[in-house]
């Protein structure tokens, strides 16, 4: 009489566990790649918005009181781009209520979940950068952005080491990678 045994052998079990381990490792690496792409995408979008504000200041400024274009950071996860209209002709951005942001020119951007932005290592909330009609970066009091420039860092709360950075000075906007506290641009 022949005996029928059901079940799996130890070799079969080890093969299945090995395959699962490989699949989990690939999935783990894939999530880092996805997070890296999210950080890179948000950095490129901020870079493009800074460049667009500069270009709009040079080419699209309208009206006698238009002084250029700007970007205002509403929080560590959102910012607003706008045309700067100097309503009181004092060459200063007056923050409240945003009467010096031309209606119809305001565009709000929000970083996707888990991503945040810092400016020179601090929360950028309330920071406003204005580009004049020559494309020069200025502060709200119309002073030029300091020669060393400003450093924006976009990073993920899940994987902070994947941070990317943008350097902005009076005449240039460049993207780079973060190496410790330094923004390294190519």
Can you describe this structure in just a few lines?
The protein is an alpha+beta fold and 186 residues long.
Topology:
Blueprint: H1 10-59, E1 66-73, E2 78-85, E3 107-110, E4 115-119, E5 128-131, E6 137-138, E7 150-156, E8 164-168, E9 173-179, E10 182-185
Antiparallel strand pairs: 1-2, 1-5, 2-3, 4-7, 5-6, 7-8, 8-9, 9-10
Structure commentary:
The protein is of the alpha+beta class and 186 residues long. The chain has a domain at 13-112 and 123-144. It has 1 helix and 10 strands, in the order H-E-E-E-E-E-E-E-E-E-E. It has a 5-stranded antiparallel β-sheet with strand order 3-2-1-5-6, covered by helices on one side. The chain is elongated. The model has no long low-confidence stretch (mean pLDDT 86).
Uncertain segments are: none
Q: Span from first to last CA? A: 78 Å
Cα shape: elongated
Q: Give the number of helices.
A: 1
SSE order: HEEEEEEEEEE
**Strand adjacency order, main sheet:** 3-2-1-5-6
Mean pLDDT: 86
Structural class determined from secondary elements = alpha+beta
- The proportion of strand residues reads 25-35%
Radius of gyration: 25 Å
Number of strands: 10
Q: Approximately how much helix is present in the residues?
A: 25-40%
What does the largest sheet look like? 5 strands, antiparallel
């Amino acid at each position: 009489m022949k005996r029928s045994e059901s079940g799996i052998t130890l070799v079969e079990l080890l093969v299945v566990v090995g395959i699962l381990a490989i699949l989990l490792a690939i999935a783990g690496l894939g999530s880092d790649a996805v997070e890296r792409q999210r950080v890179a995408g948000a950095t490129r979008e901020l870079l493009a918005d800074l460049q667009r504000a500069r270009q709009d200041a040079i080419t699209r400024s309208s009206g006698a009181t238009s002084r250029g274009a700007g970007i205002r950071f509403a929080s560590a996860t959102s910012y607003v781009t706008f045309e700067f209209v100097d309503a009181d002709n004092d060459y200063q951005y007056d923050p409240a209520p945003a009467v010096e942001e031309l209606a119809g020119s305001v565009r709000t951007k929000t970083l996707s979940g888990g991503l945040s932005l810092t400016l020179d290592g601090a929360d950028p909330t309330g920071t406003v950068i204005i580009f004049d009609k020559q494309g020069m970066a200025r502060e709200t009091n119309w002073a030029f952005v300091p020669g060393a420039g400003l450093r924006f860092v976009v990073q993920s709360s899940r994987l902070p080491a994947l941070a990317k950075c943008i350097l902005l000075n009076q005449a240039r906007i460049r993207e780079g990678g973060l190496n410790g506290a330094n923004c390294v641009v190519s």
